[in-house]
């Protein structure tokens, strides 16, 4: 890496960005440099949007890699179903990574694209490597999807407030798929109150059948 590239990466960003629901992060330096573009958005708006897009890119990339990890490593009686579920969610998220990165680039920013940069920037907690049973995997993935969902909500609010409607619209698309993924995962953890006992609506044992 050249000295000029190192100085670009170390250049502090003047734009503030909202912190995620995970660990608190300082303002991003990944999108510090802006390339000149013919945009109707003021430079300070573009700087903020580039930062929040890079934060989304880091968090989304981290969760996507974790879904692939879960796909490969899940064990237990529900293996096949969860193996397929995690793969499906991975495939749903992957196109969003490219779209978010391209939006950051279109605004004149530098989208992060290395594993090291993602690990440094993301607010998503790492997965535990010693929990491979289906229920533990589901709980960990659900927790991380919840962090990503909360972060996206804050980023959408910021983009809307500063008038960057295209970025807000893009993040809304990501948010819809994240919310859907959270529903799919959490549904495996939700047990009806009647389960384990008598089913709702079933006649009591020994009770006469109702006459039609």
What is the CA-based Rg, rounded? 22 Å
Number-wise, the strands total 0
What count of helical segments does DSSP give? 6
Decide which structural class fits the backbone. Answer: mainly alpha
Mean pLDDT over the full residue set:
79
The CATH topology: Ferritin
Question: Approximately how much beta-strand content do the residues carry?
Answer: under 5%
End-to-end C-alpha gap: 81 Å
How is this structure best described in words?
GO terms for molecular function: ferric iron binding; oxidoreductase activity, acting on metal ions. This is DNA starvation/stationary phase protection protein Dps. Residues 14-32 have a biased composition (Polar residues). Belongs to the Dps family. Residues 50-190 form the Ferritin/DPS domain. The chain is an all-alpha fold and 212 residues long. The protein has a single domain, classed as Ferritin (Up-down Bundle), CATH 1.20.1260.10. Helix content is 59%, strand content 0%. The chain is built from six helices and no strands. It has helices at residues 3-10, 43-73, 79-106, 115-121, 134-161, 165-187. It is elongated, with a radius of gyration of 22 Å.
How do the helices and strands line up, and which of them pair or pack?
Elements: H1 3-10, H2 43-73, H3 79-106, H4 115-121, H5 134-161, H6 165-187
Keywords for this structure?
Ferritin, disordered N terminus, 212 residues, mainly alpha
Short recap of the structure:
Belongs to the Dps family. This protein has 212 residues and is mostly helical.
